[in-house]
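Subject: complex prediction, re-run

Hi both,

The earlier run crashed halfway through, so I resubmitted it with identical inputs.
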Amino acid sequence: MISIKNLHKSFGELEVLKGIDLDVEKGQTIVVIGPSGSGKTTFLRCLNILEKPSDGTVEIGGLVADFSKPMSKKQIMAFRKQSAMVFQHYNLFPHMTALDNILEGPVTVQKKDKAQAKEKALALLDKVGLSDKADSYPHQLSGGQQQRVGIARALALEPKVMLFDEPTSALDPELVGEVLQVMKDLTQEGMTMVVVTHEMRFAKGAADEVLFMDSGRIVERGTPDEVFNRPQEERTKRFLNLIQDTDTI
Amino acid sequence: MYLNSIFSNPERLERLGDIAQSSFLPLIEAAVQFTLPLSVISFILGLFLAVVTALARISTVRVLQWIARVYVSIIRGTPLLVQLFILFYGLPTVGVTIDPFPAAVIGFSLNVGAYASEVIRAAILSIPKGQWEAADTIGMSYSQTLRRVILPQASRVSVPPLSNTFISLVKDTSLAALILVTEMFRVAQQIAATNYEFLLLYGQAALIYWIICFLLSLVQGRLENRFDRYVSR
Ligand SMILES: Nc1ncnc2c1ncn2[C@@H]1O[C@H](COP(=O)(O)OP(=O)(O)OP(=O)(O)O)[C@@H](O)[C@H]1O
Ligand SMILES: [Mg+2]
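This time it finished cleanly. Structure:
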């Protein structure tokens, strides 16, 4: 489903991604962990071309983007459609209701039939447990509810891959569970997902593979059991030790 | 003195009452025929110009940025009255003659365009980067992002400062009297020239300006409330 080769990203002089290689099978859930500034967010943003990679190729769902060559707007748009991003701070549109947030992609961008799109959006709201919040504005929702709308908005685009950037790290602890549950459901339904998170529970319960990133490289990878319980690399051990006490990794 | 003479002289008091009564209608007529249309038309054209200018300022195209900067700098750096005089009295000397009303519309629109563009630019820049990213990830184009996501939010932030711009504009239209537009202040001048009751006529004009601006501030309050329904916290 995803095939990443030699992905590089620099901001001016600063090289943030120093050659990432990764293959993800359809239906797999990959969890990415790593210290602050290691490039996790940048990595996800590159997959959705919110940030234009400096070099390398990424294939998602059969569509290949070669970043060593210039890309047209149209190519970027087409490639971006393969995946959808869920943000740390939800980034819902505050002037639209929950339902309109979800409809914005299918109706305004993809020009789908409004009635059908609405039916589907309501089903998505139901799926994330918010069928009674269709007409609420974001500021009337809790953080956990907002993030679930964020997930529904991404799902409405019918992406082949879902990208999550620390979806629960801005939430009060008691609201984390409801968001993780929605994500676990998605995993079970066979969605392909790349998730940056430090939620141990989620990684252990849902991840097929865990990647440990440091300084723009994937330093260690394996099953959750391998990475968490028998880390091979010194840097991984140190990172896990550092945050062992907390509930998150 | 003046007050003294009014109250010690019932005839004069009566005369003032008559004049106030007979000049009220022409003043209101001038306000409705010229002051208000001049304000509204100039504001709408000016806003349009302001959005274009603000977008040019935040665009990545150097030439556009530069044109917008020069335009704003010239308008802000020169007196409005001088601009109006250049348009109405200056341009005819190079063969471009514009009637009073259109000349005033052009002058005021250019002014609103420059001042409001700074307001709109600041409002656009105040929208969090996450909003652009969310629009990106759902596949919106630049113009869709502006129309659907950024400008609706920016316009909310802009309501108070733009209302001030509009209220200033209503008062500034009195300057059009000096390029022969028969708006309210010019009518007041004309009537006063026949009866020499300057205080009365200018006082009446001031009162009507104040009432218009007061009503506008009520509208501003309602607009702000309307926009507030989706504001967080
Ligand atoms: N737009 C940008 N311009 C310049 N530097 C950037 C930009 N975005 C990120 N960086 C830099 O790239 C590096 C990696 O940032 P990134 O946000 O990907 O890290 P992260 O692993 O997601 O960290 P965190 O856990 O704190 O979210 C950091 O040093 C950051 O300062
Ligand atoms: Mg990050």
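The pocket of adenosine-5'-triphosphate (ligand 1) is lined by residues A 11, 14, 16, 34, 36-42 (CB under 6 Å).

- K.
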